[in-house]
Amino acid sequence: MEAYKRWIRRNKDFVRQFDSLVNNLTWFLPDEFAESEIGPEAVSSTVGMITTMNEYIIETSPTDEHTRCAESSFVPLSLCLTLLKDLETTIEVVAEQLYGEKNKWNLIAVTEAVKACIRLVIFRKTEYKMLLQGGETEIAENDSDSLSPQETKRRLDKPRRNGESGISNGQNPGNLQGRAISALSSFGKNAIMEHPQAIMEPPSKVVEKPSLQTFLSEKGILGSFFVTGEIFFIIRPLIYVLLMRKYGTRSWFPWCISLALDLIGNSILSVTLMSQNSGNNHRLQFSDSEKDELKRRRMLWALYLMRDPFFTKYTRQRLESTQRLVQPIPILGFVAEKLIEILIGVQTRYTYISGS
Question: Where does the record place Basic and acidic residues bias (predicted)?
Answer without folding.
Answer: 151-163
